Amino acid sequence: MLDFTPDALADLFAEDAVYEFPFLAPQREASRYEGREQIRAGFTRAWASPYPSPVVGFRDVRVHDTADPELIIAEHEFDAVNHATGDSFTSGFVLFLQAREAQIIHVRDYADVLRVSAGFGRLPQLFEQLQNTDHV
């Protein structure tokens, strides 16, 4: 994440893994990637625009145990900078991550879409997207 390296991220996933984004965001063309190569391609597209990585650090990382030994819930905040404006912002995330045999098999990524969109100056696109969706 700090380096915005889609190949390194994708290599952590099983071949048939699923990565989901339950919350709508204007920088994403899909709400779900199915398979390692789709994860690689999706993050390659998503991370091409704000390159270099806007993420300057993570903090308040908390990992919660669950009754399922394959599942963890992780919370964190990251500090980022909008390279176009120089403005800094902070956003939070919650990840539900399921792993088996040293590979990630499923992620549900709950991002604070409002803060990320505001930090990158994308609130108008987010609101337009919300008006044009059947999922409101």
UniProtKB/TrEMBL annotation:
Gene3D superfamilies: 3.10.450.50. The lineage of its organism: Bacteria, Bacillati, Actinomycetota, Actinomycetes, Kitasatosporales. This is Nuclear transport factor 2 family protein. It comes from the Bacteria. Residues 6-105 form the SnoaL-like domain. It comes from Streptomyces silvisoli. InterPro entries: NTF2-like_dom_sf (IPR032710), SnoaL-like (IPR037401). Transmembrane segments: none annotated.
